[in-house]
Here is the input.
Amino acid sequence: MTSQGSKPTARTSSQVRAVAPSPSARTQTLLKGKDGIGTVRRTVLPGGLRVVTETLPSVRSATFGIWAHVGSRDETPTLNGATHYLEHLLFKGTEKRSALDISSAIDAVGGEMNAFTAKEYTCYYARVLDTDLPLAIDVVCDMLTGSLILQDDVDAERGVILEEIAMTEDDPSDCVHDLFAHTMLGDTPLGRPVLGTVDTVNGLTADRIRRFYKRHYDPRHLVVAAAGNIDHQKVVRQVRAAFDKAGALTQTDAEPLGPRSGRKAVRTAGRVDLLDRATEQAHVILGMPGLHRTDDRRWAMGVLNTALGGGMSSRLFQEVREKRGLAYSVYSYTSGFADCGLFGVYAGCRPNQVHDVLGICRDELDRVAQHGLSDDEIGRAIGQLSGSTVLGLEDTGALMNRIGKSELCWGEQMSVDEMLGHISAVTPDDVRAVARDLLGHRPSLSVIGPLKDKQAARLHDAVA
Here is the structure.
């Protein structure tokens, strides 16, 4: 079980819109693959439950997942960590299965089962042989519809989650991303850690988590996704039977929730957050507002990010590591949410070299903002991004993630060829325009490390 926070709600800044009602099951083909391979189909069941599948007959595996339209941004301050806590608790047992029954059922067929929580969604999945898909569907659906959420389980799992928080705190290269989210977004749902804090986790009770579960895990909030050597109609029948048995599809006029919408400006500039830790390295993120995930410029931003810090040939890697040997790990990344986004440059280096590293990173960002990238850099980045996009979709788990997240976050499906078309259509002028618009902003800075007073005082120079 994992969390996905800022790395790769109170709904005050993000609203949820409803899509068309579905009084009866309705199936449509969203993407048509040759000879059925890569065909994506979608069925909306009477309770508002969506089922999307992608068929890949050439493999012998299948991945089945259920995505919930809830993440840490849906939590109030006192509920911070509830989404991730609930993710753990759904593995603890139902009326039909104990925690051991759940894990042993998938282990017995050589499958794997896990879940992850992010800022705007949660996903539970199992990957099995194609012949064992009915078992995976039964187990995962049982977890999502019939979890008991007992106080004894809440108390037992609390210690596990506190250890997970401690583990994250012990890894400054991970923890600095949470610090950066807080630096940029403050004490808001998106700025708080997905795991919660020691205080908020200690304050959560079974009753509070159970109410959170009932509010966010009805079929309208869920998307079922499956990919591999599967038959769409069989998956729909098995899912419908499982949810019907749990009495979860009784609201026949229910409407599935559409993607989040809204726009939120991130205006943070020149802010510096330093967390003093006795670490061997200093971990820094220099960043600024990015793009929300539906922004048409996101393809150009992806190319820009790849050219700046997406590989061994990127500018930042070459300048910081290859030419000067100042850091082992240096990269850039983007985080896109429904209504805003972040762009950051991470580096881990010796504390006495922090200012050298930050100076180089800031100089490169300013240089690219003013003068753009060369055509060669852009062409290389387009090729790298295209290749990594395809190679990242070479297993059924990745395919399930793609179609499930696309349905939940965009409300549509895009073929690999369409994605590659968007990437290849990016022009040097597109990249230079987005670089000028985004990288020209005054950055903010998050640092974890053992910096002395004089070093700490100089950190503001990097964002001046």
User: Anything to note?
Assistant: Confidence is low (pLDDT under 50) at residues 6-22. The longest helix spans residues 151-169. The chain has two domains: 2-261, 272-463.
